[in-house]
Amino acid sequence: MTKAREILILMSIVYGQIDALNGDHVLKATRRTLIGGLVAQHLLAPVFAAEEELDVYFGVGCFWHVQHEMAMAEKNILGRSDMELTATAGYAGGLSTGKDPSRPGKSLVCYHNLQRIADYGSLGHAEAVRVKVPASTVPEFTKEYAKLFDKQGDRPDKGDRGLEYRSVIGLPGGQSSPFYNQVKEILQDAKGLNLMTGKGNDPDTLGKKNVWLYDTNSFPLYQAEVYHQMHDGFFPGENYPSEYNALNKKLFEAGRFVDTGCPDII
User: Fold this and answer.
1) Residue 31 backbone class (left: φ over 0; alpha: ψ -120 to 50; beta: rest)
2) What is the pLDDT of residues 1-36, one digit of tens each?
């Protein structure tokens, strides 16, 4: 039985709409069984609760819009509430990190800053967004990621140039991930994108229809500064609701976002 069917059966049980026929389940279609979105938050989370969760990340240009779309995917696919969101803007794919003198042993990767502290571009990192999701949903999140590319298979914000804005995906195990072939196929079928194994500090992908793949064990994502989290995009239509922006402070206070040690506005 598929997970989607399990959820439909659970929904029907809630509304008393399940019959037994020859040992099988027959779902009665009523208006109440068609309002799954209203109860998804209560049904989806328990279904996925026992499943292993993976940290994966996605990047294509500026991370502000990517974070919003991944947060919405968490709500729509997993039924997560605002305070359960894991979408985190950050930096990944570089071979080097800076050092924080105030925190011995802690690696530091920062946005461009006047102090020139651990600049992510100089260190070879790209902007990306990490989500922690049930393993079985990695393909669904990859499909949402593919939607962020334009019809030509490129990033929309072509004004941003440089390796900081290259397209990236991070999977545990990289090319050895059990999802490698499926992710590769999704990207190829959706936008004609090529999944390439990254070695770190890889060049920009603009105009090349490539996406660099990284093993998250070797190339983890470093959280970006708090002021970058839940930020509006800069394209028309990317002024997000104030409730979304307000999650910046709420999730910081809840410990989901942390002080990175970089120059920040908290």
Assistant:
1) alpha
2) 444 434 433 333 333 333 333 344 333 333 333 344
